[in-house]
Design brief:
By secondary structure, the chain is an alpha/beta fold. The chain has 2 domains: 2-90 and 203-278, Rossmann fold, CATH 3.40.50.1860; 92-202, Rossmann fold (3-Layer(aba) Sandwich), CATH 3.40.50.1860. It has 12 helices and 10 strands. The strands form 3 sheets. It has a 4-stranded parallel beta sheet. Strand 1, helix 1 and strand 2 (24-28) form a beta-alpha-beta unit. Helix 2 packs across helix 3, helix 4 packs across helix 6 (120-128) and helix 4 crosses helix 10 (202-216). The longest helix is centred in the first third of the chain and has 17 residues, at 40-56.
Length: 284
């Protein structure tokens, strides 16, 4: 499983609870965080690098826990790794959950600018709920605030309230948290949206898909064993451990440092309008 930082540990947490007999390797690309303002070309390059690295280490299934990387690179990653291992992303599973949860057909999305601009959630939702409408909101400030690992302060509260306001105006009844960092502030988001709004997250969506894929391919471990998990990151291992413990809600242990490719940034693109935006640790 890989992610841009520690946010994917919210996905890993759900997997460790649901699949305690499987082994997991998690790679956090903290040296190149955040992914949310990266270009599609950069995201594809990063995904191919990290996915290939984890496949080379013997992963039997790869989870792209990062929503931005899933939106930009999942088809290409599956093509490049075809025949080596199955590759799962988080966009389609979350969209299916949202389609089942919505009563009115009005679904909101909170995500990074890159994810919103990709239109991946709009396409995925349309496949499973053609009559539903998606209200996407780009949240460029939120993931960096959460990744910093500090206290939930007024800046975070104000950011959440600001990003949720368009969803309240649109009268959505279901909201997709389209970034793995956002479950850490789920109570704030629920409070801002109101308790009548259902929230779907990557972790709850992907664990069942992993289990089904492993069973279908005959790769599932015996449920009688106890699995293990380990970590690597491209940035500071001690900082990863400090912040990551809060996300995983379990001990992290040793975190291995791994060098990655160049972390240069492409020139920033103009922020998309709402209308335009709509148009391992794989189990080892």
């Amino acid at each position: 499983m890989f992610d841009s930082g520690v946010g994917g540990l919210t996905v890993l947490h759900e997997c460790l609870v649901s699949l305690p007999h499987e082994d997991f390797v998690y790679f956090g690309d903290t040296a190149r965080f955040p992914y949310g303002d990266r270009s599609p070309a950069e995201l594809r390059a990063f995904a191919l690098e990290l996915g290939g690295r984890l496949a080379d280490e013997g992963a039997k299934l790869l989870v792209v826990a990062c929503n931005s990387a899933t939106a930009a690179a999942l088809p290409l990653l599956r093509e490049r790794l075809r025949g080596r291992l199955p590759v799962l992303g988080v966009v389609s599973p979350e969209s299916r959950l949202a389609a089942r949860a919505t009563r009115s057909g009005r679904v909101g999305l909170l995500a990074t600018a890159a994810t919103v601009a990709s239109g991946a959630y709009a396409r995925a939702l349309a496949e499973v709920a053609p009559d539903a409408t998606l209200e996407p909101v780009a949240c460029p400030e939120l993931a960096p605030l959460i990744q910093a690992g500090g206290e939930v302060d007024e800046r975070v509260v104000a950011s959440v309230d600001r990003y949720c306001e368009p969803l309240r105006r649109a009268d959505v009844d279901t909201v997709i948290l389209g970034c793995t960092h956002y479950p850490l502030v789920r109570p704030l988001i629920q409070r801002a949206l109101g308790r009548g709004v259902s929230i779907t997250t990557s972790g709850e969506a992907i664990a069942a898909e992993i289990e089904a894929e492993l069973r279908t391919d005959g790769l599932a471990q015996s449920p009688d064993r106890r699995g293990h998990y380990r970590f690597a990151c491209s940035g500071d291992p001690e900082e990863f451990r400090r912040v990551g413990t809060r996300f995983l809600q379990l001990p992290l242990g040793e975190v291995r440092h791994v060098e990655v490719g160049e972390a240069r940034r492409a020139p920033p693109a103009a922020a998309p309008t709402r209308r335009a935006a709509e148009g391992a640790h794989p189990t080892a």
